[in-house]
Specification:
With 57 residues, this protein is mainly alpha-helical. It is 82% helix and 0% strand.
Length: 57
């Protein structure tokens, strides 16, 4: 499976399950990110945390 196909499937899964984005970001942060976009993952995690806090208040 190509990297583009993997990313496409991951994005499709994240649209149907918002928690999947967080899980994928955490897993890539722990295991190491093969495509070198570690900063993007950190930003995604921070955005998710801010979103959860905003929705809970």
């Amino acid at each position: 499976m190509s990297e583009k196909e993997r990313e496409r499937l991951k994005n499709k899964e994240q649209q149907g399950n918002p928690g999947a984005a967080f899980n994928n970001a955490v897993n890539q942060a722990i295991a190491g990110n093969p495509n070198g976009s570690g900063c993007i993952l950190i930003v995604i995690i921070l955005l998710i945390i801010v979103l959860v806090k905003a929705c809970s208040s």
